[in-house]
């Protein structure tokens, strides 16, 4: 059965499938790191923590990018009411990006990082060894090539078709993503400048343009599953993404408190980033409002659950947990503690992992020719996956927050002579780390249930 | 939302607001980079400091440690390690011994890998950490433990 409006939307499928494969890898390495936190020599020197972490975070970033690309290839043609400009280019770029990604991860795992830097001629243009930007320079160039081809393909599609608000917000977000990534190539020998402009990639991605991508995907899915008038949903979308940028751009200041920067960033960063939860709160109101005002009963209950879930969890993880430590006088004590880790985990899961699973949930039954929705049994498995992963992540966040509060109490608040050292503090936090690992196992079980749902079929009598 | 507030108005706030606040951000960035030399003491960046930063990056130190609070939270803060571990009098001797003793192989303890650095490289890295410890970070971290 063919259920796609535009056949070229099917190019999204390999992107979604590969994203899910990388997601499994990310979680497995996360579980390993969780154990290394409490049993430091659990795998001896086979996989040092820094390697595991690099694999964990880079897999996350890459699978989210695959998810965003799949989402764009799926929704842009339908919004533009025309076939994708070049499905062949989309498939070619998929293989290039997948090969570059796999080669880079294998490079991390198979040789020491310094050797990888040597093999990839990092000395010619050093860009490696900075958090999240660990990829060899050649991989970074590959990412730029893939991004340019991707934007060209989508841009041409939008140019020849309908320019809806969803397409315009999505494409401005994706252009921003590509443009800000260019700062990854700027690595001056002065650490002060290096750190300052590093945030142009990291913050302006996750607290800037990625929110546009999230907003556009959420708006698209809400229109589809609720049948509410496009005019209403698109007006909300513009308001939400406007709030995201108005608060988020100067909100970058919350990363400049303790970097060789003038003190005024403590004011600007505190004030604007304190408002960063607003767009996420608006997203919760809007998602629930639209679902309550729905004009149809869409058979894909799971997709609706993901759409509501991503709004709520993004608000909690990015909004509430971000606000917890964003004011400069609080951040002075919490900066770079387990509180930061708690926020990072729930924010990435809620805003970005969940929005990708939202569009996958909506689009995959159509791409696979199943119809509007998977069978009831498959949806039940999917919703088990949703709840186990989400509850798992809530507890990961709570336990890391507990660890962070205790860490600040023992290591940061006392005066120099009385404060515990970092390593002595870590020993006191072990119970929280064990509990976090348990919550991580629950999360993993949720992921297994979620993936299993793709293979569940209605019994044919 | 009320009917008098149209989609077109919302769109204009999106584009206009984004451009307006991004321009302010660029202006502040320009001012900040002008102020930075007073705080980063860039005249003290010697060739040894530059080589040390390259070593810091090529061995992925940020994958376990934080540097001025940024990085991984698995191992101690190193922005002020120069001061914490002896400063002018004792840091270099401590650091050379420390790097050579890895991995400590204490059962159950978090393991730092052996990076096989030469004495020269260890000295370069020490120079980088010394320069980093002198940066004006608006008084962060709160105490010596980082």
Task: Walk me through what this model shows.
The complex is a heterodimer of chains A (461) and B (146). With 461 residues, chain A is mainly alpha-helical. Chain A has 2 domains: 1-163; 228-461, Up-down Bundle (Cytochrome C Oxidase, Chain A). Helices cover 75% and strands 0% of the residues of chain A. Chain A is built from 16 helices and no strands. Chain A has helices spanning 12-38, 49-80, 87-110, 113-119, 137-160, 165-181, 191-226, 230-251, 264-274, 277-292, 301-324, 328-334, 338-367, 376-412, 422-428, 430-452. In chain A, helix 1 packs antiparallel against helix 2 and helix 7 (191-226) packs parallel to helix 13 (338-367). The longest helix of chain A has 37 residues, at 376-412. The mean pLDDT of chain A is 97. In chain B, helix 2 (47-58) packs across helix 5 and helix 4 packs across helix 5 (119-133). Chain B folds into 2 domains: 1-40; 43-146, Cytochrome c-like domain (Cytochrome Bc1 Complex, Chain D, domain 2), CATH 1.10.760. The longest helix of chain B is centred in the N-terminal third of the chain and has 34 residues, at 7-40. By secondary structure, chain B is mostly helical. Helices cover 55% and strands 3% of the residues of chain B. A two-stranded antiparallel sheet of chain B has the order 1-2. Chain B has helices at 7-40, 47-58, 81-84, 87-101, 119-133, and strands at 66-67, 70-71. The interface between A and B is large, with 84 and 71 residues.
Secondary structure: elements and pairs:
The complex is a heterodimer of chains A (461) and B (146).
Chain A: H1 12-38, H2 49-80, H3 87-110, H4 113-119, H5 137-160, H6 165-181, H7 191-226, H8 230-251, H9 264-274, H10 277-292, H11 301-324, H12 328-334, H13 338-367, H14 376-412, H15 422-428, H16 430-452
Helix pairs in contact in A: 1-2, 1-16, 2-3, 2-5, 2-13, 3-5, 5-6, 6-7, 7-8, 7-10, 7-13, 8-9, 8-10, 10-11, 11-13, 11-14, 13-14, 14-15, 14-16
Chain B: H1 7-40, H2 47-58, E1 66-67, E2 70-71, H3 81-84, H4 87-101, H5 119-133
Antiparallel strand pairs in B: 1-2
